[in-house]
Amino acid sequence: MSNSTQWLRNSLCAATLIGSMLATTAQAEQVSMESASPNSLLGMIPQAMARHWADNDIELQLSLNQTLTKSLLKVAAGKLDLAVAPPLAYNAMTKNAGPYKKMGDKASALAANVRSLFGLPGGTYHAITWADDNIKDWPEAVGKRVYIGPPAGAANTQVIALATKGGLIEGTYDPIKAPWGAATQSFQDGQFDVYVGNTSIGSQSLAELSLSHDIRLLSLADKSQTPDPSLGLQLVVIPPNTYPGQVNKSPVISWQTVMMMVAHKDFSEETAYKLTKTFLENRAIVAKSNSMLSQLSDIDPFAGVNAPLHPGAVRYYQEAGIAIPARLLAQ
């Protein structure tokens, strides 16, 4: 059993036990948080950070497998302390659009309550073809079937933008939509030619896929092909030999989703300060605890973040001498 698999198994504990097992002082403050699935980066990071927050008298009550657009709404309404939130969802809320369209002006009014603490690395887009196919780069997928994510998801916009930046023009290929959970098997069954999966670098599922059949990852031409800031993405490099059956001899340049930790504007300033300080000052330790978390130590704390910073977070960044983008300072 790999170290990553063992680490994940050990992490799948009841969320309410995290705080009770780790908080060691009677004055520990209970903080509720929601995030994604336990074996995703967005689920693994808060689990790994829990003991460090506990050392600073913050008892984390973590609920996983949540729909993050709904978690963001709970924070905005004051019904949840913290949530991992997609920047695109926050942007939609401010515009009364997307999943919040039916709420009308109430959505944008609630968005005004949201404050950010720091950014978090999400999954990396892996554009995969079989090594024995004749698709060696993005332009060669013209006329092919390309998986672009689940129906009506933010991934559609992101994958289309990635393909376009790589030289595959929208309208010149057949975009296929299907649930994430069925995509890998559908690719193996030949239902599309390019599978664009979103997972952590070094994912066990992609390692197993490459063992069944050699794969090639499609790459952007160079590091100048950065994503539009509004997409909630950042540039990332996937090394050669990351997967057993990967045939790429050079580093693969792709994009990684970026999320943000958010709280209500009235959330305790002191607690927001301690959460931010503890996260930034212990992320290198957490990154070394598991290879799948290695990118945690390098991420720009403001990458993808588009909600104004909480005063407690601002206090930490100012004390640490970290320059804050003017766009993130609440008016």
TrEMBL record:
The positions making up the signal sequence are: 1-28
Which Pfam families does the record cross-reference, listed alphabetically? NMT1_3 (PF16868)
UniProt cross-references to NCBIfam families, sorted A to Z = TRAP_TAXI
**Which PANTHER family does this UniProt record tie to the protein?**
SLL1037 PROTEIN (PTHR42941:SF1)
Q: What is this protein called?
A: TAXI family TRAP transporter solute-binding subunit
Look up keyword Signal and say if it applies. yes
Q: Which UniProt keywords apply?
A: Signal
Q: Which InterPro entries match?
A: TRAP_TAXI (IPR011852)
- Iron recorded as keyword: no
Q: Coiled-coil ranges per the record? A: none
